[in-house]
Specification:
homodimer, alpha/beta, Aminopeptidase, 8-stranded mixed sheet, 12 helices, carboxypeptidase (chains A, B), zymogen (chains A, B), metalloprotease (chains A, B), Carboxypeptidase Q (chains A, B), CPQ (chains A, B)
């Protein structure tokens, strides 16, 4: 609507009356403390920091300075080269049967379309299985569209299967002969902001241009596809321009820092997050929050006396596109022979921790009980099942068969924001962020002060 | 996060198991009936339809065909020329003190920056009053940023005052010598989707480039401005590219159709919406929903017998940028001498009607009581206060001093979506849309069957 309220004759004096009492601006709730300062600082002073970029390098320098200022020891930037990807201009529209601009973004490791666009029929598949079932070669010269039905889940469990549309769909479409692929974003929001994220090219597949549209765009494509299927509209045609391209041998690096324990000879406790972010947002929930949480908790665990074991903080480089050569793998190259007792990672946003899992050996049942008891008053429920660790600690966990504790955050809203332009500071609830810090602190106070052996982990650390 | 769940060895058979049961796609609730069909059809088959565009012309043809198919009589496209505006490429980033891309969109009637961007200091004003208080000439060569604190309100009442930052801010900045202006979007969401909308150039002011950033971007600018004010950061610099430009004498048109009454000699009842939309979304809530509501209600009012008075439907062209020469003004040129009894407009989204107002003369108290009584079982509350009519019916209301009924919709969430890319079909709740149709039908059955005189309206029809 345009309200017919234009104050035609409203002078400066009247405006002053209207606006004088509105000094407060619309900035959301402000937090305080170490975790908030890290999230606020990284998002405000660095912003987007895609792996391999100059911004990621600035983020490392920022992190090094911040960790030193917070009193950490042995603060080091550990540079490495990595496989990465650079975004280019991106634009798409349906040209038939209706003219509709599409809100699209390229997937990491997409290869470029022609600069003036790939013009092709867009073929609708309701699921990844339907694409898989298409005959070989049937998509020659066409662009595949893959729909799906991701729904929100507290534990984020939709991301495994529905995320596979992004991870596996492009290789599958390529094997069918497609000239390109567009997917419904792996996301649970209804904003017009598509979700990026890396795809992977299976051995023997030819990389093709690959993008994701927002959920409202995918809804529209589904409605049009239904008209096409019913013979009520001509086939869909897309004009697709995605100029992003791989960036091999890109510069990245980890930032590592320590709070030395009372007995530096004991195996250390490693806590990790990642410093790089996707380029569309400012990486507030993914994963400045994780860096804020683990760093603040490592410090808070020292209140009332230094911990027995050294706590090492890893702010990893290139998590998002790291695959086999990101920050987690580089950490193993540098630190793989140093004795570790346990690793934990925070990389699932800033909402409240609600569950805890571990892969402790039976010998450490008493330790597990102490951890669970420390979390009990906070309403954090012990769960069975495989631990995940995460991409930054996964390589060292596998290398050393480490014990792991997963503090599971509430992911109900995580995939509204994940890998989108909407991943910004205003989405971080300062109270929930602090609850994370409190939960991590409680755990670190137990495990970093453990005098007994912390045995190797057992059972399914999933990769 | 990147979950370490890549199914390295997951073959086609496993994928089939994972996906076979996911045939349903994520399309939101589907509606049915005339109103839904209009909203679904316009957004799917036409999409964005900015005034003056070829898409707006397609929308008129679509509307003409739809209204004929629905059984309306005297279906006419009434073309006119109008002042309009065309979007161009748009891009902005802070270059100091931090590098931050900004989610920006140009305001209607903005003039273009240089093609390679306007590079200037960005000066922060917390309110429009603060900008007004800046000394003349103090912004020479600079870009003004105007913040504000719009909050959601059920009756949409924030849009008058806070919308003035958009309507009046650019002229004010120009008068202070600014080279450009960027405002916080007049919106209540926290998506990274800025809100467009027309600005206006006051007499004697020089048009300047004018844009709006999303709320999260404005939050960030406010945080950086606080660092600048505290001497902790260098002044903000912006690199602003907004290439949209005015499009004078653009082609537009109204679509008008009638359901003739039993007594065509009686003054008619006019119900209106607008057919054009902003270009960023698909105009689902602004205002395909309005067209769906008034059209479906006009038809439903005939159930059980034709109405006494003719109901005329106006799907107006160029409401969004129409100012003094949009569809409402053209309607008066064509139909200003024909006798009208009453006018109503639907242009505030698709959420439920919760209040009703009128400007009836004391002579029509009995009619007002009948209208209110018809709405009473639906929980729609009579309110006192000035009626608004709307931009499409405002000119004819003023011309003929018409009686008006405002059916006030719940606008709590309207300014999350208004004038953004997020204005898409999934935001329309079919049940709420139908509640609108039911409320409108109830009112039309009363007023279009009124045998007595319907007197001129009285009191404050605000412009």
């Amino acid at each position: 609507m345009t309200r017919s309220l234009f104050p035609r004759s409203l002078g400066a004096a009247a405006l002053t009356v209207l606006f004088a009492s509105t000094a407060a601006n619309a900035t959301p709730a402000q937090g305080s403390g170490v975790a908030w300062d890290i999230v606020e600082g990284l998002t405000t002073e660095i912003g987007p920091r895609i792996a391999g970029s100059e911004a990621e390098a600035r983020a490392r320098a920022w992190g090094e300075a911040k960790l030193k200022a917070l009193g950490f020891s042995n603060v080091e930037i550990e540079p490495f080269r990595t496989g990465a990807w650079q975004r280019g201009p991106e634009l798409a529209r349906l040209t038939a049967p209706y003219q509709q601009p599409l809100a699209i973004t390229a997937l990491g490791y997409s290869v470029p379309t022609p600069a003036d666009g790939l013009k092709a029929e867009l073929v609708y598949f309701p699921t990844l299985a339907a694409l898989e079932a298409a005959p070989d070669g049937s998509l020659k010269g066409k662009v595949a569209f893959v729909d799906h039905a991701m729904r929100r889940a507290q534990d984020g469990s939709g991301y495994g299967p529905y995320g596979n549309v992004r991870r596996l769909g492009p290789s599958m479409a390529s094997r069918k002969g497609a000239a390109g692929i567009v997917i419904r974003s792996a996301g649970t929001d209804s904003n017009r902001d598509p979700h990026t994220g890396s795809t992977m090219w299976m051995k023997g597949t030819t990389p093709i241009p690959a993008g994701a549209v927002s959920n409202p765009d995918a809804d529209m494509i589904a409605r049009i596809a239904a008209r096409v299927a019913a013979g009520k509209a001509a086939p869909m045609q897309i004009d697709l321009t995605l100029l992003g391209k791989p960036f091999p041998n890109a510069p990245s690096g980890n930032v590592v820092a320590e709070l030395p324990g009372r007995d530096p000879s004991l195996p250390i406790v490693l806590v990790a997050c990642h410093l790089d972010s996707w380029d569309l947002g400012t990486g507030a929930i993914d994963d400045a929050s994780g860096c804020g949480i683990v760093t603040a908790a490592a410090l808070a665990a020292q209140e009332g006396g230094k911990t027995l074991r050294t706590i090492r903080v890893l702010w990893s480089g290139n998590e998002e596109m790291g695959m086999r050569n990101g920050g987690g793998a580089h950490y193993v190259q540098v630190h793989g022979k140093e004795p570790h007792a346990l690793a934990m990672e925070s990389d699932f946003g800033a909402d409240r921790v609600w569950q805890v899992k571990n892969n402790f050996a039976p010998a450490n049942k008493a330790l597990a009980d102490k951890v669970n008891a420390a979390l009990w008053p906070m309403g954090i429920v012990p769960h069975e099942g495989p631990v995940e660790g995460g991409a930054d600690v996964g390589p060292i966990i596998r290398e050393q068969k480490l014990a792991v504790i997963d503090l599971g955050q509430d992911g109900t809203h995580y995939f509204d924001l994940h890998h989108t332009p909407d991943d910004t500071l205003d989405k971080v609830d300062p109270a929930a962020l602090q609850q994370n810090v409190d939960a991590w602190t409680a755990v670190l106070k137990v495990v970093a002060n453990e005098t007994g052996d912390i045995a190797k982990g057992v059972g399914g650390e999933e990769e």
